[in-house]
Amino acid sequence: MSEQVTSLTVEGAIAVLWINNPPVNAVSHAVRAAVVDAINLTEQNPDVRALLIVGAGRMFVAGADIKEFGLPPEPPLLPEVCARIETSPMVVVAAMHGAALGGGLEIALSAHYRICAPDARMGLPEVNLGLIPGAGGTQRLPRLVGTEHAVEMIAGGKPVSADQALEMGLVDRLAEGPIFEAGLAYTKQLLAQNAPPRPTRDLPRANNIDWNAVTERVKKRARGQTAPVQAVRAIKAGVEQPFEYGVRTERKIFNTLVQSDQRRAMVHAFFAERAASNLPDVARGQAQPVQQIGIVGGGTMGAGIACAALLAGFSVTVAEISEDACAKAGQRIATLIQGAVEHGKTDQHVASKMLSDALCCSTSFAQLSDADLVIEAVVEDMTAKKGVFQKLERFCKPLAVLTSNTSYLDVAQIATATQRADRVVGLHFFSPAHVMKLVEVVVPQGAASDAVATAFAVAKRLGKTAIWSGVCDGFIGNRILQRCRAVADQMVLQGADPWQIDAALVAFGYPMGPYAVADMAGLDIGWANRKRLAALHGADPQAVKFPDMLCAAGDYGRKTGRGYYVYDNGSPIGKNPEVTRLIAQDRAARALHTRPFDATDIQRKYMAAIVNEAAQILDEGIALRPSDIDVVLMAGYGFPRFRGGPLFWADMQGIEVVRDEIRRFALEIPAVGKPAALVDRLVAEGRSFGTMNDEVATKPALSVPPRGSP
Fold first, then answer.
1. Active-site entry in 86, 126, 273, 440
2. Are 298 and 332 in contact (CB under 8 A)?
3. Dmax of the chain from CA atoms?
4. Cβ–Cβ under 8 Å, residues 465 and 437
5. Is 106 a catalytic residue?
């Protein structure tokens, strides 16, 4: 038994096995072997009648060891460990606190009794990696909590709270006081009552349900992901057949999924999100301490940012133009905070304290003088934003980091409104800002390393996934969005229709198509941006007209009840027939001959545009690595996670295949863009986008030392 990952002590008739594999007590090979060794050793002691399993540190066990992902498994495998626990003649108790996830919960399910701390979270999130539980989780959990709860936990992949776990029968007791002491007392009580071992496998099978209806519901929610549907299949096997049959079915499905492209894609997504924070120059910059955050603008976006900041423990001052605007901003923020209470993210007392003690709304920029970091969130207009930064220059302390929430505009140009351009970066939040995880940290040339590090540190504390971006129109995500939306519009001119394109991309795995998304965001936003670009670069005679014609008619999407779809109280109820007329008018003005499109054709052209633009962004140094672009598209734009992001998808198709499609589609649909030179280089060198992920170059924009450094 390895003392490095476990320790074994004896408390009278109770052996205590501590799992101690920091930081998350992952179920590594060493842990698996140590657990089996501990059980074997303990069973040889005639004075020991029970085994208590406890996690050291902050949690019980948070799942598999990510360092072993992709490696051949070494025995004992987790199913063998769980079987060894369950068949022990001792009374085995699992005492859980913090996280008990994946293989950690499967260990607890194999114990005979379970107790958890009030802070515990328990779940089987394997579907988030393209897998199902593989150590009996699909068989034991239904026997404890019933089929419906098991389907929700396993196919949905979301953890449950301690209270929920107690209510559904997942745990036998909630701990009072420290988990070890509570677990020890509970085990002593079981021994005093002569409680026998209680193998979960021997409990009655879970209830049967309407499997067809459940499968269809899960399939609809999965949107093309395989693992959730296969999880239902594994659960069904355990409900309808003996335990051993169910275990064999589960393991067969698990092993098949391990070899699947979806599993590879979702593991790539997992590591891509972790790699996003691997920024050498930022790591060398010293983040400043931030407690006071200023926000200029209390509209929808500003209120969302303020809500996220308050929930993260920051003090927030919102600057607005009038008392009436202040009152409305305060009400928006209070509504969002109340929503957080209702969703269990905070309690009513803490929420009230946030609003009374940590939030200030003011019409005076002087109230921002103590802010450590300020986020400008006003209208997307360069003149308006420069005006804000001129005021921030006057009132903010010299080392305050000044940030803009711009979606498209040149952050370097915004910075010229101050005498401290090195303290200015972009923080592009996604709407709704208190919900969406993605933030693009936009770094102009000359930004100080400590200012950049501070922006990343604040984003992390807000619970966001922060992605480094250089400066260009639209940065990473919106620049790609503009490109593929232009391709969609050209396909419409050539014979597709918006609803067909939406349907094809939903079939690909997107939650919504581009036209439904535009309706939700507001068609007037895209219209304003097109007018801005036309003013900067001149009107494009080849640009499609029907989107602007729709806006000119006053149809802005959900907010007006009509866009590409017709809405009733914000819900789509059908297609807008006016769109068909406007498209026909646009086609007629160009004397275009239309042709049919099928779903595959639409998907491949759309993806060619995304990959080509992403490659151009990489070539220009706007993004650090391909996996960062994958994260942006997945976290901010609904790209299906089970495909791993557009550049991982391109690698899976074969980079040469994608290169040839880009070339061909660029001739058919000019908006696909000129083929990026990077794609040709990768093909010539026999490389893929994935080979670039470890080649993060030092960026000049991050090389400016902090003020006061030698």
1. 126
2. yes
3. 92
4. yes
5. yes
- Name the pLDDT band for 521 (thresholds 50, 70, 90): confident
CATH code, domain with 528:
1.10.1040.50
Cα pseudo-dihedral 214, 219, 225, 226, rounded to 10: 60
Q: Which of 406, 487, 511, 489 is nearest to 666 (CA)?
A: 487
Q: Measured between alpha carbons, how far is 667 from 490 in angstroms, rounded to an integer?
A: 12
Q: Which residues pair with 18 in a beta bridge?
A: 7, 54
Domain that holds residue 321: 286-469
Do 605 and 651 lie in one domain? The reply is yes
Long-range contacts, 566-573 (Cβ 8 Å, 24+) = 567/519, 572/516, 572/519
Our answer to whether residue 126 is catalytic in this structure is yes
pTM of this structure? 0.92
Query: Between vectors from CA 62 to CA 58 and to CA 65, what angle results, nearest 5°?
Result: 120
Looking at the fold, whether 607 and 589 belong to one and the same domain comes out as: no
Question: Of 60, 1, 67, 66, which Cα lies nearest the Cα of 33?
Answer: 1
CATH number of 465's domain? 3.40.50.720
- Please name the residue ranges forming H helices in 554-654: 577-590, 599-619, 626-637, 646-653
Q: How many CB atoms lie within 10 A of CB 20?
A: 18
CATH number at residue 88: 3.90.226.10
Pair of tokens at residue 491: 């396909």
Out of 3, 68, 86, 106, the active site residue is 106
Residue 1 lies in a domain: no
Is 501 a member of any domain? no
Query: From CA 390, how far away is CA 372, in angstroms rounded?
Result: 17
Report pLDDT for 708: 45
Which pLDDT score, from 0 to 100, does residue 431 have? 87
* Count of the separate structural domains present in the chain: 4
| Strands lying side by side in the sheet with 121-123 | 99-101, 121-123, 160-161
The 10s digit of each residue's pLDDT in 343-354 is: 989 999 999 999
At residue 593 the predicted structure's pLDDT band, cuts being 50, 70 and 90, is: confident
Domain boundary, last residue among 555, 574, 593: 593
With 0-12 / 13-18 / 19 or more C-beta atoms within 10 angstroms meaning exposed / middle / buried, residue 447 is: buried
Mean pLDDT of the region 512-529: 90
CA atoms within 13 A on the CB side of 276: 29
Q: Does 192 map to a domain?
A: yes
Residue in the structure block whose two tokens are 């998350």: 24
d(C-alpha 653, C-alpha 626), whole Å: 15
